[in-house]
Amino acid sequence: MHETLTWGLRRASLALLVVSAASASAEPPTAGVILGPPASEVTGYDPGERLLGELNCVGCHHAEDAVERRLFSKPGPLLGDAGGRLTPQYLRAFLTDPQREAPGTTMPDLLHDLDPNDQAAAVDTLVHFLVSLGRDQAPVAVSADAFRIRQGRWLYHQVGCVACHGPQEPLTSLHANPGAGPRSVGTPADLQVLQAASVPLSHLAAKTTVTALAKFLLDPLQVRPSGRMPALNLTAGEALDIAMYLLRDQVSAANAANPPRNVRGLSYQYFEHAFAGDAPDFDQLTPKFTGEVETFTLAPRKRDEHIGFRFTGTLTVPSDGRYTFFTESDDGSRLYLADKLVVQNDGHHASTEKRGTLELKAGDYPIVVTYFNQDGPYDLRVFWRGPGIQKQEIPASALSHLGQAMIPLGEEKFTVDPGKAQRGRELFASLGCAACHPLGGERPAVESRLVATPFANLNTDAPDSCLAEHARNGAAQYSLTAAQRAAIRASLANRARLAQRPDAKALVTRMMATLNCFACHARDGVGGPEPGRSDYFTTVGNVDLGDEGRLPPHLTGVGAKLRSDWFRQVLLNQASVRPYMATRMPQYGEANVGFLVAAFAAADGPVPSDSKTDEADAKWGRKLVGTEGLSCIQCHVFAGHKSLGVPAIDLTWMPRRLLQDWFRRYLLDPQSLRPGTRMPTFWPDGKSARRDILGGDTERQINAIWAYLSLSPQAGLPPGLIHGRMELVASNEAVIYRNFIAGVSPRGIGVGYPEKANLAFDADQLRLSLIWQGPFIDAARHRTGRGEGFEPPLGYNVVPLPPGAPFAVLESEATPWPEAVGKAAGYQMRGYQLELEGERRPTFRYTFGRIRIQDFPEAVPGELDAALRRTLTFQADPPPDHLWFRAWAGSSVDAKPDGSYLADGKVKLRFDLAGGPPPRIRREHGRTELLVPVTFSGNAARIVENIVW
Predict the structure, then answer these.
(1) Average pLDDT score over residue span 271-293
(2) Which of 313, 326, 308, 315 is nearest to 370 (CA)?
(3) What is the pLDDT of residue 31?
(4) Pairing status of strand 727-728 against strand 777-778
(5) Which residues neighbour 469 within 8 Å (Cβ) at sequence distance 6 or greater?
(6) Which of 90, 92, 145, 696 is 20 to 30 A from 381, alpha carbon to alpha carbon?
């Protein structure tokens, strides 16, 4: 591509920097420009036109607007923060020989015809200029983390990176789960074949730092706005994992700045956060600081509440065998070994021990322990037990971690020379670098001073053309194959066509090729993951959905399938309905794909208008979806409820995603729209398999299903999804359930409160028997069939309260608690009364001898789970002496500094006694009791008991 700019202008610019000398050009590389996995030839796809766009020819060779719009050219990365993310040594190597440093790059060699000394001097000034940009933001090196490197290894090969960049390790070494797909990639030679047709990853370990690469992976469009490198919806933690993996040579290479060294102990991250949930996602949090410790300890904490830790390192297992791991914590903790969750000790609770067991071979395993404490006491201890090892805290001698910073290879101690940086800025403009590389951000723009032949006047056969095999006279040297040069020349031979606006089908095809969509998606029989590469497309967990579960869906006719609002959400807002698919839908940015929604619709349309549905038929749709009809829920998730079998797409998303006409056509003939799908045909030849529903009317049945799905979840769950459940729900007022409740005598009275704290009162023994949180109770057992048996609570955190009489008169504090209960102990039930207004909460009324007692429990909302507040009111004339309330009898009761009592390590009790002596803790018959004195004022007494668990 001939440039009208005389080489003298470029030479004049260089003369300011170096001494002119005769040029010495090297043999140009022959690998060719690699744009990604090859797309097969398809109507509307012109490889030469694509190259014109990917090489950004119109960046230098000005073209009319219509041509620029059609080419959808790729500008180079923004360089306004180059000094903060690119190392001097990489910039020097890349500018000296782009193809050697990054084979397949679209970056041309602009200095190829300079004398080596002049070239080195020119490169040096450019390096000083680029390093000066964003140097004040240079990221701090981070310590290597074996667990994160392992995580990044899996993420890189599963979330979609390999679709464009190619795998870095054989599939057989990744323990992947490619479902029904073959495993054809198992050797380094296999990898080389795939990598040769993949977007190259240059020498990353010398190019950048972990923090800079992680920042880039989170939002590539900030640096590469063209969308050729999209975002993969990574969390900050995932981005860091992949960055560590891609830069692993910084700790493993022979020329690493600090050879890897296992050091005793663990690395940790310390967090300060509210921690309201049961299981925090530490990847979403920013640590306050990091450090190293000998073993699992909370000693580095800066406070006692609202804290969290994540410990990472390596555990050395001394011998083969069965190992059990324990965490004892207040509040929650987890232990992961070799990426497996071994101990799950979630939630807010007193010090509680949980365990997990697995078979291990002798060797080293990445270990991670997470811990958080919301408020109150804090505690964390980590134990193990195994062959020859009695249960004990894991010692520091078994723990290690990589104790070194990840530093770019060949680190160059660099100080920016302002004079060189200024000359580099001038060269950046005169060479035309600025034509492709804006600085971006708030930095002063650098305008390209390169004057090149307009696009319309290009002579591709000129000896000083950029298309020449051996470019000269200052022309850019591209690493193009003969076929690529021929393709570009063929496109330029019909330049008038390049000014024409492509039709919708051609536009869709071109953009799918440009953005490498064909690497994942097939359309009209073209594209999709190529053999070998497709084996890396896998599922999350063991999901038996075949290729439909692991391969991204084909896009044939997608413009007539998806609603435009949903399609837009998929392209721009990470919308997804396939949680079982490991590969993620990339995000390319509004400017790059926003127009494709309309283009797909135009290419695949027109679409018939929605049919009118009868909402009254929705009840039939409910039956058809359930086990009494077509059993759609056998395979499909419904409103978040698990299916009865494999976890196919949630049915309730269908009306939000799909056009009604496509839904209808798909149900009538699934294979015609998704060849190879496991979806069965329920209306073969258009005839219903269920003639007993809606008279076997096919159209009405399909419309009924659509109507039902459109109304969900208001229309209720389909039959058979949740077997036998008839949950009693307290919405605005308390719900009372008088039936057989497991853990209570046959005279149990259950009470469910709107706050989702529940209790069971024993009307035989006159005591509070059970408390629990969450759902109240399933009445199906007692309201269907013969109704026999005891029904357990439906919720969670079920706590049985101490058996026996709740009150007793003791001659002294040493007097044993009486064994008698109920009537034998002098108790008599007097019924219960409901509040006349409000939530209609019950007050239980009973007597103990001559003492009249009113027992009023109520639920108290909490940040996560509700608690209970129980008000006990006593009337007696005359009042008794030495009346005690036994609030707890169990294994332990600990008095806390805040005045509360921790019972059995899980229930916190607090009392408002309105005067009188405090509660007493005593040991009696092998158990610990918490006795609360009942102090009368006149003929009345009152105790308020707060129960938190």
Answers:
(1) 91
(2) 308
(3) 61
(4) antiparallel
(5) 28, 482, 485
(6) 145
Helix/strand/coil for 881: coil
248 by Cβ neighbours in 10 Å (0-12 / 13-18 / 19+) ranks as buried
Whole-angstrom distance, CA of residue 705 vs CA of residue 668: 13
Q: Find residue 363's DSSP bridge partners.
A: 317
**872: CB partners within 8 A, 6+ apart:** 853, 854, 855, 856, 885, 942, 943, 944, 945
How crowded is the C-beta side of 321, counted as CA atoms within 13 Å?
12
List, in order, residues 6 or more apart from 648 with CB less than 8 Å away: 545, 635, 636, 637
First and final C-alpha spacing in the chain: 76
DSSP H/E element including 460: none
Highest mean pLDDT, choosing among 580-594, 620-634, 794-808: 580-594
The torsion of the CA quartet 248, 250, 254, 260, rounded to 10 degrees, works out to -80
5, 170, 189, 528, 541 from 184: Cα distances, Å: 52, 9, 11, 16, 21
Four-point Cα dihedral 922, 928, 933, 934, nearest 10? -160
**Which amino acid makes up residue 137?**
Q
Q: How far apart are CA 625 and CA 619, in angstroms?
A: 10
User: What is the distance of C-alpha 628 from the center of its chain?
Assistant: 36
Backbone Cα Rg of the chain: 36
Tokens of 640: 């978040």
Among 857, 882, 879, residue whose Cα is nearest residue 867: 857
* Strand, coil or helix: 92: helix
**ω into residue 118 within 30 of 0, thus cis?**
no
Domains of the chain: 7-137+418-495 (no CATH), 146-252 (1.10.760), 262-402 (2.60.120.1560), 615-711 (1.10.760.10), 727-948 (2.70.98)
Backbone angles phi, psi at 100, to 5 degrees: -70, -40
Element housing 300 (H / E): none
> What is the C-alpha to C-alpha distance for residues 220 and 857, in angstroms, rounded to an integer?
56
Cβ atoms of 528 and 554 closer than 8 Å: yes
Kindly tell me the burial class for residue 281, based on how many C-beta atoms sit within 10 Å of its own C-beta (0-12, 13-18, 19 or more): exposed
Q: What pLDDT was estimated at residue 2?
A: 36
CA–CA distance, 418 with 579 (Å, rounded to integer): 52
873 residue type, one letter? T
pLDDT in the model for residue 135: 73
Q: Supply 19's token pair.
A: 């001494």
- 651 within 8 A of 638, measured Cβ to Cβ: yes
Tokens 């041309």 sit at which residue? Answer: 108
Q: What is the pLDDT at residue 722? A: 66
